[in-house]
Amino acid sequence: MAAVAAVGLAGLVTGTLSATQAAADPAGPPAYRQLSGVGSDTTQDVMNGMAQAITINGTKVIGSYDATGSAQITTKDPAATPGCTIARPNGSGAGRTALQNSLQAGNGCLDFSRSSSLNLAAASPGLTYVPFAVDAVSYSITPTSTVPRKLTLADLKAIYHCDPNYVGAGPNYSLTVYLPQAGSGTRSFWESQMGITDADVVAGVYPCIKDTKNGSPVQEHDGRVLDDKSIVPFSIAQYNSQASQTIADLRGRAILGTVDGLAPTVLNSNFGVKRDVYNVIPTGKLGTAPWSTVFVGNNSLICQQTSVINTYGFATNPNCGDTSKQTS
Questions:
Q1: Rounded Cα distance, 226 and 190, in Å
Q2: Which of 79, 127, 167, 300 is least buried, going by the fewest C-beta atoms within 10 A?
Q3: Rounded to whole angstroms, how far apart are CA atoms 189 and 194?
Q4: In the predicted structure, residue 10 carries a pLDDT above the cut 50
Q5: What sections of the chain are H helices per DSSP?
Q6: What is the CB neighbour count within 10 angstroms for residue 319?
């Protein structure tokens, strides 16, 4: 691919990380980490990379659990912190909910969550969304799709509003318009860009939109859901990381479309439909190590890992480590 993938293929990561070392869930000792996190599918791989690269006094401190995998995960040593075997949260929303539940219970099972969307709705205890990278999102189709490879943002909005001029007349729509599973940060971000609400999607206001196929939820960034008469949003960072074999390749036949004349192969900070991605931490821990050391401020351990960020297809964020985005 172009700039982003080129960074990944150049192997710029320093320290202990290589493209093949970032594994699902914590890999290597210690089995249980000081900072356990769950949530976003979009950022799970880059945070797995961070977990491998970042140490404090020679010890890995980040335990990042994938959005999919085994039904349950155990986030802390049962001998020291019992009761931390939980259902695996899938997506930004589910990750935030799991973090809140842990904080409210005071059980110490979770310490942060991953999020590819910003949600400053009231939370108790309060949460802070700390940006660390920039992603962009395009639409994906097959090479032989009935959907053009070049669309405007206005075209995409018409498609996701089920305009019959674009998707055919209901109830037998000729185009299946997919969204990722409920709770996905990519889903909520894409909805905001398309000018639709999740409540309306769930209520069936846009009947051409589906979030399941053959009875199973549409997992974000998995192009295997596509046929020649369907469309689904796809993270450019995820696509490029899959293409470069940095992470598992789930693209199937998916290709990315061009939006408003901007190709999705440029460094994604230049792409029109872009977003910050975050780690969500308890606001009350902003001044407490290891949260402060790992997440907070432009010189935090995560913000220093620019080569890891680039390797996984993301652009660096000039506001990395900022703590101004807090829930009420």
A1: 17
A2: 79
A3: 9
A4: no
A5: 3-10, 44-53, 92-105, 153-160, 164-167, 185-194, 198-203, 236-243, 291-295, 306-311
A6: 14
Q: How many Cβ atoms sit within 10 Å of the Cβ of residue 5?
A: 20
CB 135 within 8 A of CB 116: yes
Torsion (CA) 320, 128, 233, 225 in degrees, nearest 10: 120
* Token pair for 156: 């995409």
Q: Whats the size of the chain, residue-wise?
A: 328
> What whole-number distance in Å separates Cα of residue 130 and Cα of residue 167?
38
Give bridge partners of residue 259 from the DSSP assignment: 151, 262
pTM, 2 dp: 0.90
What is the predicted pLDDT for the residue at 171?
84
C-alpha dihedral (202, 190, 72, 102), degrees to nearest 10: -90
- CATH architecture of the domain covering 134-270: 3-Layer(aba) Sandwich (3.40)
Those residues with Cβ within 8 angstroms of residue 204's Cβ, 6 or more apart along the chain or in another chain: none
Sketch the domain layout of the chain as residue ranges. Answer: 3-132+278-316, 134-270
Contact 168, 99 (CB under 8 A): no
Distance CA 138, CA 133 (A): 17
